[in-house]
Amino acid sequence: MTFEGLADRLARVRETIARVQAAHGLSHPVTIVAVTKGHPPEAAMAAVEAGLGDVGENRVQEAVEKIGAVHAPVRWHLIGHLQTNKAKLVPGRFALVHSLDSERLAQALSGAAGKAGMTLSVLVQVNVAREAQKGGCPPADAAALVALCATLPGLEVRGLMTMAPFTDDEPVQRAVFAGLRRLRSAIATEMCPLPELSMGMSGDYPAAVAEGATMLRLGTVLFGERTG
Questions:
Q1: Among 85, 119, 144, 188, which one is most buried in terms of CB atoms within 10 A?
Q2: pTM here?
Q3: Contacts of 137 (CB under 8 A, 6+ apart)
Q4: Alpha helices in the chain (DSSP H)
Q5: Strand pairing partners for 137?
Q6: Residue 143 pLDDT more than 60?
Q7: What's the rounded Cα separation, in Å, for the pair 211 and 15?
Q8: Rounded to an integer, what distance in angstroms lies between the CA atom of residue 106 and that of residue 98?
């Protein structure tokens, strides 16, 4: 498999980000996390060669295998659901965990970080759309979970993450992303400012950019359809 068109697709994505930000009076940096789920390690290498240093994986085991196969300066992101018994695999591998969604997982990651003698950067995942099939804590529980994480050794809470419903309805997409932005404004503190908003995927990233996303998790729009 080759990724010859990646540079051109990335350029179009960046043009879209710039256009949407300009239309909404925004200018902050937006990090593109290249999601390589279902693609071989060569996808991560292609991302690096195209100028993307941040690569995301949904499954821990798949990520561990790719991390071992990719010899390049990559900041790996864990963006999918994480079981507490896999928390021990996170320290030393991932620059950021996007999917911390429970007190139990927070405790497990804190313990793993302590054993490794390091600090883990995390985002609290919030189920803004309240979809039963998706992960994330309820919006009403987000403040308490962030506060807990801020007290646990070995954890640094960098912000919030959410997913919009799978729909082409842009007002629906924007409503969810705006909800996360407002939630961040409501619960951020001087000690825990929550600078990152990880929201927006291939099908809805323009709406996320319009609502202030600082991180986009993009797979298909960069690499094409997954093989697995």
A1: 188
A2: 0.96
A3: 101, 102, 124, 125, 126, 127, 145
A4: 6-23, 41-49, 60-69, 103-116, 139-151, 170-187, 205-210, 220-223
A5: 126
A6: yes
A7: 17
A8: 12
- Whether the Cβ atoms of residue 52 and residue 30 lie closer than 8 Å to each other: no
- 225: pLDDT confidence band, cut at 50, 70 and 90? confident
47: its two tokens = 């991302």
156 DSSP β-pair partners: 121
**Per CATH, which fold does 6-223 belong to?**
TIM Barrel (3.20.20)
Cβ burial 172-186 (10 Å sphere, 16+ → b, else e): ebbbbbbbbbebbee
pLDDT tens column, 153-185: 999 999 999 999 999 999 999 999 999 999 999
Percent share of the chain, pLDDT over 90: 88
Report the residue count for the chain. Answer: 228
Question: Residue 132 to residues 33, 79, 101, 116, 198: CA-CA distances in angstroms?
Answer: 25, 18, 14, 34, 20
Would the pLDDT of 62 be above 80?
yes
Phi-psi region of 136 (alpha: psi -120 to 50; beta: other; left: phi over 0): left
Residue-range domain boundaries for the chain: 6-223
Residue pair 215/29 in contact by the 8 Å Cβ criterion: no
Q: Is 17 exposed, middle or buried (0-12, 13-18, 19+ CB in 10 A)?
A: buried
